[in-house]
Amino acid sequence: MKRLLVFFFTTVSGISLLFAQNNSYWQQHVDYTMDVAMDVKTYQYTGTQKLVYTNNSPDVLDRVFYHLYYNAFQPGSEMDIRLQNIKDPDNRMMENGVSRISTLSESEMGYLHVESLTQDGQAVSFTEEGTILVVDLAKPIPSGGKTTLEMTFKGQVPLQIRRSGRNSSEGVALSMSQWYPKLSEYDFEGWHPNPYIAREFHGVWGNFDVKLTLDKDYTVGGTGYLQNPQEIGHGYETPGTQVKTKGKTLTWHFVAPNVHDFMWAADPEYIHDALEMEDGPTLHFYYKNNPEIIENWKNLQPKTEAAMRFFSKNIGKYPYEQYSVVQGGDGGMEYAMSTLVTGNREFSSLVGVMVHEMAHSWFQHVLATNESKHEWMDEGFTTFISSLCMNEIMGQNKQNPFEGSYKGYYALVNSGLEKPQTTHADRYATNFAYGISAYSKGAIFLSQLGYVIGQDKLMETVRKYYEDFKFKHPVPNDVIRTAEKVSGMQLDWYLTDWTKTTNTIDYGIQNVAAEGEKTKVTLERIGEMPMPLDILVVGADGTQNTYYIPLRMMFGEKNNPYTNLERTVLDDWAWAYPTYEFTIDMPLDNVTAIVIDPSQLMADVDGENNIYQSNP
Q: Model confidence over 353-391: pLDDT tens digits?
């Protein structure tokens, strides 16, 4: 069945690619076959890798690049030096004010070295430059051509410092992410051999066939479908059967179709639980046999199923047959079909980190934007949808589930450290500015878009965006064009101001005055970023009415978000005009309050000037 799935995914992706190519879209393809042996005493491993690379680009390629991520965990690496020079280093990577990488001994540091490499049987020239392997091919790969790259490599797992490593603070032996020589992505913008300094990743979709040999006492979980469960046991075997093993090691054989990464974790004390969903994937859980956390991890399992159903309903169907939640790493980090999360947490925190990392399965492991350039499309959209999910499955019942994101964004604006979201993820001067820009401001991109086009159109946009761009590495324009098609509005201004500038939104009520038996309201635009406006008017008798001022450059209007209130649609406000006047059909003495954006979904940086209240 699993081998049929590989054929299915390969065939479907091939058909999709052919269709896309006819529309001037293309992407590369990889097929990895790896055989790896791990020494659990020295934390050193050796491996072979056969990589079949398909060049679907219109270009001839005479050079390729690989990522060698573990080389970052060495004293003097770019990651180490950046850690020592950034104003607010990641606390997980520091100890007593000193970079933990800088103090690693030879046996504690990480490395990943290629020992031999051939192209179609012919030796090639390669050089290791930090975390990047530069390969000059023996022969160019023509457009539409394939080549086979075969290598032997060796590695050493570093102490757990960031995402990957050994012997974590919670006692997990092996968190194996970013562990193999990984081919860099080549797309319409060219190669992306970003050195591993701090941030996220960009990968090529393909099929992985991986064999892992290690001590038989270790339970392994992570990406892919186990092909030999009856040889392995460890909770994978058919219920009611027993598995007998010989020798000191086991070889685990995993297959993962149509993914762009492969993670695994292993520990001799893992408890392995599986939850079969009736109309969804099998959920696997791997956690330490620690009495203090077992109850939380058992209770986590139905919440994981609830989250899987929420995301499949509100984004789109999860395309794989399994998902693994694995205790490991140093916080929470998403991988193909799986996540690493630290497990010694309060229950609400454990659910929260699981929900966030699972949401990445859609935005990073199926849509898969280039996180180095557009991190807000992954982290922000994940924060948005996970906030909605937590609100539902944990019964939080928040009126504004995104309140924390708005608070973070306002703090960033007031700090003076904000940079445009077009800034490369490694180029932010502070982790503070990066984190809020990626997570908080990225989430507001969607929540505020719902304010602009309507909440129903927003969720329709999210679903259509996923359906149209899954497995296609979308870019920012793809999101906003999808919203335009769904809403019928023009929205390039929104993408431009919110992501390419640090322009802020600030509208205010400048004046409220009597005009006979009516009331004249004068509004002012103080910030540089334009927005449409919802305005609530409260009368002395308790009546409530709304007024809607469309933004002229939208060339459209949203539906009334307050269906229980009467709405008056006013003339468009053209951005260049700093003020706008309208009249309320109510005497001034009867006006109790006027409020700009009662939903508080518009990220107005000064809320104090958004409210008019009559004197008591």
A: 999 999 999 999 999 999 999 999 999 999 999 999 999
Per-residue tokens: 158: 């570093």
Beta-bridge partners for 580: 523
Residues of the chain above pLDDT 70, percent: 96
Domain-wise residue ranges, the chain = 403-500, 507-613
Measured between alpha carbons, how far is 215 from 267 in angstroms, rounded to an integer?
10
- Pick one of 1.25.40, 1.10.1740, 2.50.20, 2.60.40 as the CATH number of 507-613: 2.60.40
| Interacting residues of 380 by C-beta distance below 8 A, sequence separation 6+ | 438, 439, 440, 441, 442, 443, 444, 445, 446
Tell me the whole-structure pTM to 2 decimals: 0.95
Alpha helices in 398-527, H assignment, sequence order:
403-415, 431-435, 442-453, 455-469, 476-487, 492-500
Instruction: Check residue 13 and give its pLDDT.
Output: 44
Reduced DSSP (H G I as helix, E B as strand, rest coil) percent helix, strand, coil of the chain, to 5: 30, 30, 35
pLDDT for res 20: 40
User: Which residues, 6+ apart, have CB-to-CB distance to 27 below 8 Å?
Assistant: 17, 20, 56, 187, 204, 205, 472, 473
Cβ(275)–Cβ(304) below 8 Å: yes
